[in-house]
User: What shape does this take?
Amino acid sequence: MTQSTPTQSADNATTQPQARLMIGTELAAEMVTKAAVRAEALRERTGVQPCLATVLVGDDPASATYVRMKQNRSKKAGIGSRSVVLPAETTTEELVAELTKLSEDPEVHGILLQHPVPAQIDERAAFEAIAPAKDVDGVTMHAFAAMAFGEPGFRSCTPGGILRLLEAYEVPLSGAHAVVIGRSPILGKPAGMLLLASNATVTYTHSRTKDLADIVRQADIVVAAVGKANFVRGSWLKPGAVVVDAGYNEGNVGDVHFEEATEVASLITPVPGGVGPMTIALLLEQTVDAAEAQTAAGTASV
Assistant: This one.
């Protein structure tokens, strides 16, 4: 990627230009197009159409909208979709039973449980009911172990999408100091594992971290995943840092104060249009991966 150069202001003072944007939209579209080609090839060769089952518990408008968006993108990629909508009062046992049924259904190749789930549900127990071969969202402990140990398996979609975006923009990871803000099991933790696997030096930070701004200021790469609007300020950043905003808050606002950060960072993801499209694209790509693997395994066992 080309490097930015200083610009001259009216008074001839040298100033740093705003950060370049890491746009996920075009790269995600390329990934979906390639997934569609593979899905069609699989259908023509075997008669099998990749199928993604989405499971939504309750009637949260934002979650329902997100599920519909994923289903629409699935159709564009030649992936069939099956929608399971359960009432808000669903118990852990009922949800586990539904996910187990989908895991055992040979016509379903990938399973997405929309999260967060209602408070009465043990989310981890629900995730673990998804068969690892169909965990195309990368939410099970099996998937996390695979990411941590560098073994084959599905990546958590948002962290995996982040890595693909960093690679596309040729961000050097080996030897870089990456600070991950947030430690959720499906975003912060796996993001750190994937960065570590790329030979970055990784620091995890969270709600109990002392002197957070000072730690972030040491980072070559910042991954913000805290779910708080405008949480990371421009003054926290080292000049030239690469900033990945994995947050999405009300009003299309990320976890990073965008206007401040663009004055300091060299690269930054916008919200929306940065990480979000990559998440869905990787989900669809991994659904096709799962369909190919399950079809091949079924053929081998005949």
User: Anything to note?
Assistant: Residues 1-14 have pLDDT under 50 and may be disordered. Residues 275-301 form the longest helix (27 residues). The two ends are 49 Å apart (CA to CA). The first strand starts at residue 7 and ends at 8.
